[in-house]
Every structure is written in C-alpha cells, then in structure tokens.
Specification:
By secondary structure, the chain is mainly β. Helix content is about 10%, strand content about 60%.
C-alpha cells in the first residue's frame, strides 16, 4: 500500500473516530437531569439522517414519563412520516449520583446515562426495526435544554463502530 493511500486511510479513520460522539452545544445552558428532562408528558419532532446518502426519515413522538423512587419509566409513541408507528418503553434506574442505567425493548445490553451538569450523555446499542428489517445500531446522545426550554437530543448513530447517521429530536412539555 502506498504512503499516500495509507495516509488517506488513516486520516479517514481518525476523522470517523472523532465523529462518534456528538459535540457539546455551545453557549450557556440550564442544568439538566434525566428525570427533570423527561418527567411528565411531552411531544416532539425529529429527523434521522443517513450521512452517506443524505436521506432522511422524519418522525414525531409523544412521551409519557413517571418517576417512582429511583426508577424513571418513559413510554415513547413514535409516528414516522412513512406511516409506520411503534411504541418503546425506557426503564431507567438510578445507579448513583448523576448516573442511570436503562433498558428498552430494542436495546442490546444496558444503556448508560451520565448527567454532567448542563447536559446528559446517553450511550446504548439497539436493534432498530424498519418494516421487516432489523439493524443493530450504536447511539451516542447528548441531551440538553435549548434557550427556549425545549429538550434537545442530538445523536451520532454508528454501525459496527463507524458513524453512519445523525438524529435530532426536539421535545416540548405539554
């Protein structure tokens, strides 16, 4: 392999590695915790973008959440622009100060959520269903309040550890 090709390959891999975790939003933000961000009812809209092709899949969602002791349950009803609908339920348990572990019907293993003051970092693997297809994807999310008080969830989506897409989901309390 030539030095030029090797440099291009190594450079591409280095750039891909940098893009596996979403950047923290800039500017001052309000503090946020997982239970504060998701307790009660909210609605939102989002988009999943595939980096390579530029295709998008839009969705809306209704969330209904409750905190009982150290367990936060979030029921998510998704409505995709292609007519598909599904319901997923997160169950998070407090694992210590600023830390949560969680599962959802489609997760592989345990999700981790870490509160860092004015953002939450959520990391998990999921078997994503679309029609009859199932694809295992990794999600690295950053969740924060925007200046208008909406909860923003930005995510980098990976397949086999390589970034393949992005999700932006904006939620507002009802």
């Amino acid at each position: 392999m030539s030095i030029k090709r090797r440099s291009l390959l190594l450079g591409s891999l280095a750039l891909a590695a940098c893009a596996r975790v979403p950047a923290s939003p800039v500017g001052p933000r309000e503090p946020i915790t997982l239970d504060q961000a998701f307790s009660g009812r909210s609605t939102g809209a989002g988009v999943f973008r595939v980096d390579l092709t530029g295709t998008e899949r839009r969705f809306t969602a209704r969330l209904d959440s409750r905190l009982v002791g150290d367990r936060l349950t979030i029921v998510e009803d998704f409505y995709y622009d292609d007519g598909e609908q599904n319901r997923l339920t997160w169950v998070f348990d407090r694992a210590g100060p600023g830390r949560w572990t969680g599962r959802r019907e489609d997760t592989v293993g345990v999700a981790t959520a870490i509160e860092t003051g004015n953002e939450i970092r959520l990391s998990y693997l999921a078997d994503f269903r679309s029609g009859t297809d199932v694809t295992r994807l990794g999600f690295e999310d950053v969740i924060y309040f925007d200046p208008a008080g909406r909860v923003i969830n930005d995510a980098i989506v990976t397949r086999f550890g390589i970034p393949v897409g992005r999700v932006r989901f904006e939620m507002q309390r009802e």
